[in-house]
Task: inverse folding
């Protein structure tokens, strides 16, 4: 994976970085931590600049996020309500009012959610889908996505740029941290899913 990332960056420069980050949004298992940190490393030995890498990666993040936003818009609230009103919804123990409640919550908290979720692995990609489903205004979505992504990208690119010959050590720390965050997210999701199931059963 790392060799492929380096090869794409070497061959295509900023376009390669933007494309990789766009793909990371669409396919969360591709680690942005590695892509962005390597982008920072390459500013030391190539003609790429830190500012250039940040701009390219942020643009790539935005394009990927907008694509997922429109997927969520296609799979809108009305379609979800139809699905949960069918026999499949009964199997999932989800009711139309649950969809309405979730949509209302996102309308109230969506702006902050879209911004802060840009700092959480995997979630930063997936959050674009409920934003589209809840009809969050595109301009607001772009604003909060760009701000959150720019901060995340800047931090990782700077880590790479200042790490120098310690890149292997830095990448190992980032990889371990990502795994820990993902495990915590899975545990939290499992707890909420269990509580939701118990409440529906009652």
Result:
């Amino acid at each position: 994976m790392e060799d492929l990332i380096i090869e794409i960056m070497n061959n295509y420069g900023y376009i390669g970085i933007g494309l990789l980050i766009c793909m990371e949004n669409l396919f969360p298992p591709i680690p942005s931590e590695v892509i962005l940190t390597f982008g920072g490393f390459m500013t030391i030995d190539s003609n790429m600049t830190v500012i250039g890498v940040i701009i390219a990666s942020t643009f790539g993040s935005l394009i990927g996020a907008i694509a997922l936003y429109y997927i969520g818009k296609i799979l809108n609230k009305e379609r979800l309500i139809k699905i949960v009103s069918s026999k499949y919804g009964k199997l999932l123990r989800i009711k139309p009012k649950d969809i309405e409640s979730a949509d209302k919550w996102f309308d109230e908290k969506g702006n902050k959610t879209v911004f802060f979720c840009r700092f959480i692995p995997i979630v930063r990609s997936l959050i674009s889908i409920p934003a589209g489903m809840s009809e969050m205004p595109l301009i607001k979505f772009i604003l909060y996505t760009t701000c959150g992504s720019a901060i995340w990208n800047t931090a990782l690119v700077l880590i790479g740029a200042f790490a120098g010959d310690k890149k292997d050590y830095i990448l190992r720390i980032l990889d371990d941290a990502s795994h820990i965050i993902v495990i915590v997210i899975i545990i939290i999701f499992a707890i909420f899913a269990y509580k939701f199931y118990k409440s529906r059963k009652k």
